[in-house]
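User: structure tokens for Putative drug exporter of the RND superfamily, please.
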Amino acid sequence: MAGGRGRATATLIAVAVVLGWLVVGGIAGPYSGKLGEVSTNDNASFLPADAEATRAQDLAAGFTEKQTTPALVVYERNSGITDADKQVAAADAARFAQVPGVVGPLPPPIPSKDGKALQVVVPVDGTDGDQIISVVDQLRAIAGENRDGLTVDVAGPAGLLADLIEVFSAIDGPLLLVTLVVVLIILLVVYRSPVLWIAPLLAAGMSYSLASVFVYFLAKNDVIKLNGQAQGILTVLVFGAGTDYALLLIARYREELHRHARPWDAMKTAWRGAAPAIIASGGTVILSLLCLLLSSLNSNRALGPVAAIGIAATLLVMLTFLPALLVLGGRWAFWPRVPRQDQADPQAEHGIWSRIAGFVARRARPVWLVTAAVLGLLILGLPQLGVTTLGQTDLFTKRTDSVAGQEVIARHFPGGTGSPATIFTTQQTARQVAQVAQGVPGVASVAPVTGAQQAGPPDPNAQPKVVDGKVELQATLADPPDSNGAERTIRDLREAVHAVPGADAVVGGFTAINVDTSDASARDRNVIIPVVLVVIAIILALLLRALLAPLLLIATVVLSFLATLGLCALIFKHLLDFPGVDQSFPLFAFVFLVALGIDYNIFLMSRVREESVKRGTRAGVLAGLAVTGGVITSAGIVLAATFSALAVLPLVVLVELGVAVAVGVLIDTIIVRSLLVPALSYDIGPKVWWPSRLSRSTRDGDDRMDAGSHRAH
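Assistant: Done. Predicted tokens:
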């Protein structure tokens, strides 16, 4: 009778929890499709306030009535521009000027020196992404694509931004669909059940909905910034990490169903066993992501809180909603492989991992030495990584209109036409600064901004406009504004004009923003990476109640991270033919790979410690590896597959990040967690728990006897 009442109470609690979450899901669900409405893919500076390019932007506000973003409409005919082509471009320019959002009047088309191209500079009002994409769409509709051999493309900063926003606008649909399909297929393979996959997938969807509603309102009220990159990563992170946590809990629940008659009792025991590792894992990822708030770049600071909210929502759902679903499903949720109450040793269901554990026991030292050496060899690929600022033509995996236009500009005009560097200096030193700037290699021309300044070729003899004793000079660069050559020119230009006495010169513009972004990215790597490592070390020390084990785990994950970068360098260069990786890539890759990679070590070593208390350290290592091997490997495959879904987006930066996380997670699960960490821990023995009392265990001999019986088994 008491058992019946207890069973009824447990069922009522589970039903109440599930119904409560379904109500929450009904309210929050629609917001997952609204994130694009609050995503700010605008052209605003991501730079810190003290960056030179930021100071230049502030000074520029006094020289223009409106802040504009230039679109460059380029016309090309390989046989040479005709008079009819010039009339077409002039007529188009007149129609461009009538488009709402275009700051007119526009200057006449600019011919190239080789006579094969024309260029119309179209200033677009403001930097708001939605406004710019609307204007660019209308410019492209007016210009068309090909007029009897005359090709027309819309490029420049406005064209590039419009193409980027178009890519990010596809995140809500295709990326989410691909992620769901990938997770579904893997769950079907892992569980071989037509029913069980529903619970983790439903819980992951609930996590995404809950995260979306928080991100939506925080972004709408300008508490956090949401951009397309953060939105894409949120999707794959929530489904990947959520499925990982679900796999761990379900595996532990299945074990306990062999020991308990009632699912409720099995879930209570499983929850107590798995929750600390899941919470430690999620907490590690959350704190690591929040370390991005230390970044000097707004783009990095935007990603940290958004992704951290996703993980927090996932933890909450997976530790409440998912257990209730599983309890209601009972044993039959696992059909056709229904676990019976037979008091079976958990290791009995993990034959292959028991054999791997036996192999580790027999060859512990050679295993960790060889695996460490293999990872060390992969690190040799690092010099080919090519950290750089990706140029406009390198950003996309497909050829967009803005990329085609930039290629035309590079062929026929000075690369910096339409996007000059800006130099602000005192009125008294303006002429000297202009002369010095003109002498810098890579500077094609220098001219002042005048009171009647129009877009187009500047007049070097015009009288400069003076604002608060300052003059603005525009330096057209010989190289494309997003090229390495242009960045070198900006650094040389700054060095030259800063040396003019009394000039107080400030250099800004599109290329200068890239330079300062690159410098800020390097600074962020140097600051954030050590902080993340310290945070992870503290969490591991608290979880494992030891100091040596956390240090060893961090060392293995850092080794895995460097090996991943080395392997990715070879993949990007020789398989995918990418020009390099963006400046932000190493930091993002580190945060995700180390935070997520340490997850699997947390799952393993928390179980190893639990088993070590009962069996002794070496036997505990083998038991922990045998029991967790299958579920952690499955979790790693899920996370790798979900991040690889980023490859559906035609953006090199996200494809590279997706590939890196997928490769890194697989290295972590297959090599580091399956072989390196267990072999190293087994070889060290009880001292791995130093300085805790467990490190002074007198069961070292028992350990070896248990290990021997394990090998015999």
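User: Anything notable?

Assistant: The chain is about 60% helix and 10% strand.
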